[in-house]
Specification:
The protein is 48% helix and 16% strand. By secondary structure, it is α/β, with parallel strands linked by helices. Residues 110-127 have a biased composition (Acidic residues).
């Protein structure tokens, strides 16, 4: 009996030793794989105390309180930080939005002010020039018919044509330039007229003349017959290539109703003198004529130059308007002679221009030697 008990005790001791050994081995094994951090160690004092303490024991309360307190601290730390970040972001966005709104508002105000200023300027312009625009619309400018004879023998013809064309281009429209020359093979005049940008009629004739004055009068008659045949309505003025104009002269021409006349200064390239030809006026009423000689030893009615007068073209093709019974549409008749006769027949029909001061010189004649 004694030997059996001893053997049982030995077996039990060996079992205890083996169990202790296995326990130590398992603990060491898991301890090697455990993390090194203090808070996360599976064998930390807090976790061991929690696991070893029975579930219903009050010893877990301090640990739980500490855990809950730490969570609250983290939450209270994160919450104001997030709130502060959101508040800061909101403040930045709000300020940026307010700046954008202010910018848009200021731009809108500037645009409205610019529009108002533009409207005011337009109103002022309309108030300043309504009458002129309305008058121009209701009473359009009358056509000016400028008749210019030319001669191919004149060496300065090209230069003088270009000079006169530059003057006519400065006149407010409408303007019709009637240029007359003898029929020749050269197209020099036609090329000049096409480049002027002025409305023109280029007329030619075939007759030959020995006298330069007869040829010039014939050219003027050709132009008058063309005006009569086509019933061109406007103010006719004979513009020599040697004429030099003040641009206000053409504005005065448009005011003529029937016949108009004006003084002209005759200049000479070789002589240092100026001769005045034309009417003597009281306002726009013709009272007499300038005389060439100081002793007045001239005709009672001196011959008038064609460049000294202008007339309404309807006198050629509308005789009833001017109190005549028949027209002068006979090409064999001297139309220029008829117009001169009408001008000199009754001075009361003549209108002196400029109407406020007929003694003012607006036209000069400067012939160039050829």
């Amino acid at each position: 009996m004694g030997s059996l008990e001893r053997s049982k005790k030995k077996v039990q001791l060996w079992k205890k030793a083996i169990v202790h050994f296995l326990l130590c081995f398992v603990m060491g094994f898991f301890t090697g794989f455990a993390p090194t951090g203090k808070g996360t160690s599976m064998f930390s004092t807090r976790n061991v105390a929690i696991h070893k303490t029975p579930h219903g024991s009050n010893q877990t309360q301090p640990s739980l309180n500490m855990l809950h307190h730490s969570r609250l601290e983290s939450e209270t730390f994160n919450k104001p930080l997030s709130d502060e970040m959101s508040a800061t972001t909101t403040t930045i966005v709000t300020s940026q939005w307010s700046k954008l709104n202010d910018t848009r508002h200021s731009e809108k105000v500037l645009e409205e002010e610019e529009e108002e200023g533009e409207e005011e300027r337009q109103d002022q312009d309309q108030e300043q020039e309504p009458k002129g625009d309305n008058d121009e619309f209701l009473n359009p400018r009358r056509l000016l018919i400028i008749v210019t004879p030319t001669n191919a023998k004149d060496q300065n013809r090209v230069m003088l044509l270009k000079r006169l064309s530059n003057t006519l281009r400065l006149i407010p429209q409408p303007v019709l330039w009637v240029v007359v020359e003898q029929q020749i093979e050269s197209s020099e005049v036609s090329n000049i007229l096409r480049k002027t940008g002025i409305m023109y009629r280029h007329l030619v004739f075939k007759e030959n003349f020995t006298s330069i004055h007869e040829e010039v009068d014939h050219q003027r008659n050709v132009a008058l017959n063309h005006i009569e045949h086509h019933r061109l309505s406007g103010i006719v003025h004979f513009a020599s290539l040697s004429n030099v104009y003040d641009l206000t002269f053409f504005d005065e021409l448009r005011a003529i109703e029937g016949f108009g006349t004006w003084p002209m200064a005759l200049l000479s390239a070789n002589k240092k003198q100026v001769i005045i030809e034309g009417p003597i006026c009281d306002s726009s009423e013709v009272m007499g004529w300038h005389l060439k000689k100081a002793n007045n030893s001239t005709d009672e009615r001196p011959p008038i130059r064609v460049s000294n007068f202008a007339f309404n073209s309807s006198i050629l093709w509308d005789p009833e308007r001017w109190g005549r019974t028949s027209s002068i549409q006979d090409t064999s008749q001297d139309s220029l002679k008829f117009v001169r006769k009408e001008v000199l027949e009754d001075e009361t029909k003549l209108m002196g221009i400029p109407p406020d001061d007929c003694s003012k010189i607006l036209l000069w004649n400067l012939p160039l030697s050829t």
